[in-house]
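tool=predict chain=A
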Amino acid sequence: MKKISFWLCLLLMSLSSGGWRVAAIELNDEVPQTYIVKKGDTLWGISEIYLKQPWLWPELWGLNPQIDNPNLIYPGDKLHLEWVNGQPRLQVSRGRDVKLSPNMRVLPLDLAIPAIPLDEIGAFLRDHRVLGADDIVRSAYVVAGAQGHLLSAPGDRIFGRGSFPDGERVYGIFRPGAVYRDPVTSEVLGYQAQDIGSATLISDNKNEVVELQISRIAEEVRVSDRLLPNEEQILDATFRPRAPEQEIVDGFMIAVDGGVSQIGSWDIVVLNRGNREGMEVGHVLAIYQTGALVYDDIAKENVVLPDARAGLLMVFKVFEKVSYAIVLKENRPLKVLDKIRNP
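tool=predict ok
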C-alpha cells in the first residue's frame, strides 16, 4: 500500500450546459498499486477503494488500450495504478482464462463486472411505475372477466375498455397503490402502480370493448385494474455516475420498495425530485439524517445538532415529479424521510 494524497483537476465536457466544467478527483490516503478483480466485484466497489468520490470512476479509468470497453472488466483481471502525464489511471491486464484476438473477445459479456447490480434494477423496472392522476384517468381498464368472473391464471381471458393504441399488443395490468406526497408541500407527486400481471390483446382494438388473454399473474385481477402498454426499458450498464449540476433543495427519500422499516445498501427508494427539478439518470446524491435535538447543560437550552451524512445513492429512473434510486452505501441504518443533497 502506498500513501497518496492529492487533488487533480480535470476538464470535462458538459453537454447539458454546452461548455466546460472542472471536476476534481481525490484519491484515498492509502490505495493499492495492484488489485485482482474477484467475482462479485462492481466497478463502484473497486472505485471506492481508490476514490473518495467513487461516482467519478470514469475519469480514473480513462481510455484503456488493453480493452475496447473500459466499462467491462472480468474476474481475474489485474488492475495497476499508473501515472499518465501526471494523472492517475487504472490499467488492466487480463488473467490467463481470458483470450484476446484482434477481432473478438472470447468471454461471455454477462461475466463482466457491472457498475452496480443490474439484476436488482432490471427486475424493479419491469414491475414498477409511477402514474399521475391524469395517467390513471386516461388509461384503459378491466371491465369484466370471461363468463362474468375473473380468474388468476395464465390463459384466462378478460375484457378491457378504453384507449388501446395502434400497434400495441402486450399490456401490463396495474392497480393504483400508494400515494406519493411531498413531505414539505404535501403536493401529490404520483401514484405507485402496483404490478398485477400482463395480458395480450387478442381482439380488434377498434372496438369499444376488447378481449385480452392473461399471460402472467402476480395476484388476482380485479375489475377496474388498469391496462397500460408495456414500456421498453433500456438499461444503461454504465450509467455515468455524476453529481447533479444544480443544487438539490428539500429532497427526501419518501418511500422504499417492499415496505421495510430500515433501508440499506442496494435497497431501492423513491425520491421526491424528478424531471422538473433537473434530476437525471446517473445523478449521485448524499443521504443525510436530521440532527438530534439535545439539551445544552451550560446554556440551559435545547439545541439541534447538524445533519449527519449517512449514505449515498444513485438515480436510475426519472419521472416528472419523482425518481427511483438505488442506495450504494450506508454508514448507519437509513429510513424513509431521510434527506438527500448534493454529494
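Confidence is low (pLDDT under 50) at residues 1-22, 63-71, 96-114. The chain has four helices and 24 strands.
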